[in-house]
């Protein structure tokens, strides 16, 4: 259902890979709500995914960019504001990658070159993106920047590996840069801590199906889907959340405040 929540608003969507990705769902819903945007992803990800289908569906242009390269981001922001006809109102950072996870390296036996690559892609790219937006004064007042994160930033999920560190770093950057963006530009910056979601990226983590099943049993409302996360993201891009900033917002069916649930306890109680 369209409420025209984002009518006249312009932005950039990072990380739409295929129809399973949260960024993809968010782009579709922004389009439904009257917003316009450019799509961007790393050239290698674009070859793997179906981003051209999304661009066609939403009438959007694609600007390839490696989010770890400042010059790529500068080109992206310049072209996006030119294509869209003005400053931006929203930016979604939906990027995460761990080479250690992909290579099967245990957390206690990491390749630190891979670690550096992982935090550059997953976290420092968010700082680089905001720094370019800030220096170019590319955001409208009361604009909104959102990055996607996961609760492993606060709690131990052993197989999430160094992605947990990357997400903790990402959340810290959101708060620290968000202060300056709010004070100087009246732009809000938040992270959404989403339920474990069966996206293409998420499936690369060992034991991810177990994360999903456990969270489903722990959460009073059940896991939030990618579709529901897209809806929540829209509210943060809208004018209805103008004073929400520097927050890590849990969108997880209540999981983050649970100690234990009846369902989980019953699984461990021996039957008479």
Automatic annotation (TrEMBL):
| Gene Ontology MF terms | enoyl-[acyl-carrier-protein] reductase (NADH) activity
User: What SUPFAM superfamilies does the record point to?
Assistant: NAD(P)-binding Rossmann-fold domains
Q: Which UniProt keywords apply?
A: Fatty acid biosynthesis, Fatty acid metabolism, Lipid biosynthesis, Lipid metabolism, NAD, Oxidoreductase
Q: Pfam family example for this protein?
A: adh_short_C2
Active-site annotation: 150, 160
Which reaction equations make up its catalytic activity? Answer: a 2,3-saturated acyl-[ACP] + NAD(+) = a (2E)-enoyl-[ACP] + NADH + H(+)
Question: Under which name does UniProt file this protein?
Answer: Enoyl-[acyl-carrier-protein] reductase [NADH]
